Amino acid sequence: MKKIILTADRPTGNLHIGHYVGSIANRLKLQEQNDYEKYYIMIADTQALTDNADNVDKVKNNIIQVAIDYLSAGIDPNKVEIFIQSQVPELAEMTMYFMNLVTVARLTRNPTVKDEIKQRGFANSLPVGFLCYPISQAADICAFNANCIPVGEDQLPMLEQAREIVRSFNHAYGKEVLTLPEPLLPENEACRRLPGIDGGLKMSKSAGNCIYLKDEPEEIKRKVMSAYTDPNHIKISDPGKVEGNVVFKYLDAFATDESFKKFLPEYKNLEELKAHYRNGGLGDVKIKLFLNNVLQELLAPIRERRKALEKDIDSIYKMLFENGKKVRKIAGETILRMKEAMGLDYEKLLKKEN
Ligand code: TRP
């Protein structure tokens, strides 16, 4: 079966290096492999509104930011259809039908949603739309018959729920109408969930612990030099801990043997560097400067492309709007198939054609 790929991001801020290793790197790989029937990337503005109802401007302004992040990271608009979620109203209709197949108890069990509710302090003010966003996410996926969903680890509970919804729908209406999606995680474990520079569990805009794809060189360096390492590693001669050390976590995700050849040739690879750190005699400044070089090399071309793209914002908006119209047709076809399966094709009730 040929792949139909779909993934998305909420436009609530610029994309950061956690997005890059967690999902964008896989998206670029899929694009290179060229072994797919269709490839969509959606800017999930409707989903972003589920906890930003009073902050529409933020969501609106970040749509173009995220689009530029994609293009500057190397997503090719000739190969991938990038579109805006709210421009495909069929997704909302599909969500309505799916809502009847999911219980409130099931929604409140979703571990990612649970964490997010806590983080946002939604105890008594939880918007219904927010609780239901995993259902609308299932619609995003099903509308395009997507079977391959490149995401970070935090999205696994959403994919599990989407799969349940597909099964329930197909079961309830007795047909193989909807396609079961499969998540695609990064192979490298370290890439699945990148911690923040402060050692926080996850890199996130709200925690203010991100390195953004668009950061200027000085900013990147400043952040890397401030990264959380091992608080007990005080003197260079002290043995240091690699576990929980953000610099090593990032090196796990970003450094290759090539990086060592280029920037730190006195070590063959990361294993050697870790061993030296553990034994004592290796200072934080040295590993941070190495990480800085690795990240600067990755981010420089992305930043350059961004500067070029920023000169013609209109053509990016036009591309997004055009794609929105195109993909609506596909979502519309899926809705028709669903309604037929459900018996909502009321035209058939007419006895005579007129
Ligand atoms: N929830 C995803 C995120 O926060 C964004 C998203 C919306 C998504 N719809 C999707 C991801 C469909 C994959 C498939 O990053």
Structure description:
There is one protein chain. Strands 1-2-3 form a three-stranded parallel β-sheet. The longest helix has 30 residues, at 313-342. The chain starts with a strand and ends in a 12-residue tail after the last helix. The mean pLDDT is 95. With 354 residues, it is mainly α. α4 packs across α8, α4 packs parallel to α15 and α8 packs across α9 (156-172). Helix content is 53%, strand content 7%. The chain binds tryptophan. The site of tryptophan has 14 residues, from β1 and α8.
Widest sheet: strand ordering:
1-2-3
Helix content: 40-55%
Describe the largest sheet.
Answer: 3 strands, parallel
SSE string: EHEHHEHHHHHEHEHHHHHH
Quickly count the helices. Answer: 15
Bound molecules: tryptophan
Shape: elongated
Approximately how much beta-strand content do the residues carry? 5-15%
Q: State the separation between the terminal residues, measured CA to CA.
A: 41 Å
- Total strand segments: 5
Indicate the low-confidence ranges by residue numbers.
none
Radius of gyration using CA atoms only: 23 Å
Task: Estimate the mean pLDDT confidence.
Answer: 95
Task: Specify the structural class.
Answer: mainly alpha
Any chance you could write out the topology, listing elements then pairs?
Layout lengths: L2 E7 L7 H17 L2 E8 L1 H5 L6 H18 L7 E4 L5 H10 L4 H6 L1 H9 L8 H4 L1 H11 L4 E3 L5 H17 L9 E3 L32 H9 L20 H9 L2 H7 L6 H10 L4 H26 L3 H30 L12
Parallel strand pairs: 1-2, 2-3, 4-5
The structure holds tryptophan.
Core attributes:
354 residues; mainly alpha; three-stranded parallel beta sheet; two-stranded parallel sheet; elongated; binds tryptophan
